[in-house]
Design brief:
Elements: E1 6-12, E2 26-31, E3 34-40, H1 44-51, E4 59-61, H2 67-70, H3 73-83, E5 93-97, H4 99-108, H5 114-117, E6 118-122, E7 127-129, E8 132-139, E9 145-152, E10 155-159, H6 168-172, E11 178-182, H7 200-210, E12 214-218, H8 226-234, E13 240-243, E14 249-251
Parallel strand pairs: 3-4, 4-5, 5-6, 10-11, 11-12, 12-13
Antiparallel strand pairs: 1-2, 1-14, 2-3, 7-8, 8-9, 9-10
Helix pairs in contact: 7-8
């Protein structure tokens, strides 16, 4: 029996569209052989297949329907369709997502319909996914978005998807071993405007409020100075600050 593996691998770190050589939102979370995908935006599927040699993931969670978070779920569906018992009825891949995500996938590829490939679950509902207990937290964004808190024996990972500032963030990441937080904006918008995205400094603030152990900044607007973003977060958060880079692996 092989050594237990508990880690998170960055598949994509960009928001909106991918910079050259990078991909949009995507993470692979592994716990003792169970492999879960958190979002799968533009360009993230090829990295997923690189990090899942000889097999496909066991479950998928998509925080919301924007294509920089879900477009490559269509590619994963094709891989599942053509490689899992081709030509015969096969088990569906569990997919926890918002209803809008399924509609987007259907628009890209209506045949086979996503619900014939994926066992669809409403992300708004808490669930057990393999070794993980998943608790969703509704967070402010342009589309319905849920941050997810994933707890397995020995570790807790919290992930925002996309969000504006919200007191819910402190509960989402309370005492988490790793808080994956979006840091899209270079500067905050004018006061009084609705908030649907955050700065790195704000990500640091909420990591500190939550008492998280480590903060992983992600969802950078293309062209962002990532080193500067990390320094802004460190000014607000005394724990370890990591910057999402494609293929970065974080031990849990």
């Amino acid at each position: 029996m092989g050594e237990a593996v508990n880690r998170l691998t960055v598949l994509g770190s960009c928001g909106a569209w991918p910079e050259p050589g990078r991909a949009c939102a995507g993470f692979l979370l592994e716990h003792n052989g169970f492999r879960m995908v958190l979002d799968l935006g533009y360009g993230a599927a090829s990295r997923l297949f690189t990090h899942c040699p000889g097999g496909l993931p066991d479950a998928v969670v998509v925080t919301h329907e924007h294509p920089d978070h879900c477009a490559d779920v269509s590619a994963l569906g094709r891989a599942w369709h053509y490689t899992v018992q081709p030509g015969t009825p096969a088990a569906r891949l569990p997919l926890h997502c918002t209803p809008g995500t399924v509609r987007r996938l259907e628009a890209m590829e209506p045949r086979p319909h996503p619900e014939t490939l994926f066992e669809v679950h409403d992300l708004a509902e808490p669930a057990g996914i393999g070794p993980f207990r998943m608790t969703p937290y509704p967070l402010p964004h342009h589309q319905p978005n849920f941050g997810v808190r994933l707890t397995a024996p020995g570790s807790t990972v919290a992930y925002t998807g996309d969000t504006g500032p919200s007191p819910q963030l402190a509960e989402l990441a309370r005492d988490a071993d790793l808080f994956i937080c979006e840091a899209t904006l270079r500067t905050p918008p004018p006061e009084g405007e609705p908030r649907y995205l955050m700065t790195a400094a704000e990500a640091g603030h909420w990591a500190a409020e939550a008492g998280a152990r480590r903060l992983l900044l992600t969802h950078f607007w293309p062209g962002t100075d990532r080193a500067a973003a990390a320094e802004e977060a460190r000014a607000r958060f005394g724990g370890e600050v990591l910057v999402a880079e494609e293929d970065l692996t974080v031990a849990l």
